[in-house]
Amino acid sequence: MPKILISGASGFIGSHLVKHFASQGWEVTAFIRTLPENVSPPPGVTFKQLELPHFIQPEDFEGAHYFVHCACEKYRPSKKNSSAINVEGTRTLLKIARQKKIQKFVFLSSMSAHPQARSRYGQHKLLLESEFDPSRDVIIRPGLVLGKGGLFASISEMIQKSPFIPLINGGSQLLQTISIHDLCQSIENSLVRPDIVGFLNVAHPQPITLKKMIEKIAKNHQLRTHFLSFPFWFFYLILKIANAIRLPLSLSEENLLGLQYSQIFEVENDLKKIGLSAQSLEEYLARESTV
Ligand SMILES: NC(=O)c1ccc[n+]([C@@H]2O[C@H](COP(=O)([O-])OP(=O)(O)OC[C@H]3O[C@@H](n4cnc5c(N)ncnc54)[C@H](OP(=O)(O)O)[C@@H]3O)[C@@H](O)[C@H]2O)c1
Fold first, then answer.
1. Is ligand 1 within 6 A of the CB of residue 76?
2. What's the chain's average pLDDT?
3. N or C: which end of the chain has fewer CB within 10 A?
């Protein structure tokens, strides 16, 4: 069975990938920043400590076939050097992976990574993409990931907490989405198929506006919502102040910049290449309400 190394394994996507590959009998090394105390790993999984940029132990890479890099130090006022941490840490991972003859390295980028990006997150991801070799590595750009984590979960929680939903400029921002199950499958397909390398944009082909997405989530929870529209600058100012005084909010100015300057990526060719028929938001919500 293949041996796979996953960084950021305590996070939303990383923890799903660990379960996905372990359930298929793969040997999984889950790299975690702070090892849990008194928690044994599930069968087939080994926990190892890894902290970007410096705490990376080359011997942990021994005998592995694949590396999936999900760890990402996000920018926040208390982590202004997040870009340097990610760049330096990613370079070290890649260097060790090459030395240890890892067959394929998958980097989790984002659809926020594009030249017009205004968020530091999008700009950092774009910078990180340039560290990879598209003729041998896989650089995956998922849309907003549908699942119980990340920005999608923050939006869902906001809808469940209050019927009054603030929208930026009426919520007309277009989003592309991918379910967590489809993302795990895309990553598996890209690993096992030697011909799949380079950039992969993975999302359902039909983008959806932020307002429509909120309406569908609310409907799924049988909740009523009232929208309050504010101009972008007003939202930005509020979140900037909240972040500066470290108010714990589920959305950050980074999320806002990502939403406002989002770009639509062509996905059909990549879905065809990896052999995936991506779920829509409706299909994802229907599946979740039955499990
Ligand atoms: N969720 C989405 O909608 C989405 C969409 C597109 C792309 N992505 C990308 O997919 C990747 C995973 O996203 P996610 O939603 O799973 O994020 P997440 O839940 O925030 O997980 C991030 C992971 O990175 C780890 N990490 C952060 N800084 C680290 C450091 N210095 N050293 C080692 N580990 C570190 C975290 O560990 P701790 O638990 O110790 O903090 C956590 O395990 C990210 O690269 C993200 O940019 C996500």
1. no
2. 94
3. C
